[in-house]
Amino acid sequence: MTTERTVKTPTRNRRAEILAAAAGLFAARGFHGVSIEDIGAAVGVSGPALYRHFSGKEALLTEMLLDISERLREQGARLATTADTADAALDALLSGHIEFALTHPALIRVHERELDNVPEQARRAVRRLQRLYVEEWVTVLSELHPACPPARLRAATHAVFGLLNSTPRSAGELTPEAMADLLRAMARAALSPLGVIL
What we know:
The chain has helices at 2-29, 36-43, 57-82, 86-103, 105-114, 120-144, 150-164, 167-170, 176-191. It is an all-alpha fold.
């Protein structure tokens, strides 16, 4: 059992290192502006050595976007169901998404720009995971605003994601803590009209 862990952990860590390096490169130069050799150089190996971990650049991008979509969905489900109140659940969802937005701006850029470079089946899987994540927010918001139509709650959730995911362009001049506080306050303010049915 110990030997198995010793063998598998470096592989997992190496894959994570490659994914992180590729995310930074794709965000900076675009999927088509980055070669396997570029990614290899960023992690200190030859380009062909990456084929031990990924079948190609498209497979790397696919895993990157599926992985982050699954992690957000799992996190959303956990935060939405373990809080004591709906208000606490919303705070937890906001904090979790803000932390993601501030620590992974490259992934946000890659998702915004490069999802169309993922094969159709995987693209559908990413979008399904994202819809499930959105529904965690809608469920919490519906408890806070039971009279608000689900379509309005869903639209508000997407709008708040747009605000929170602006960090690759907006977070440069503030400390992460100050930016987190600003984003939380702005998101709360953006969601407050949900109690008013127009």
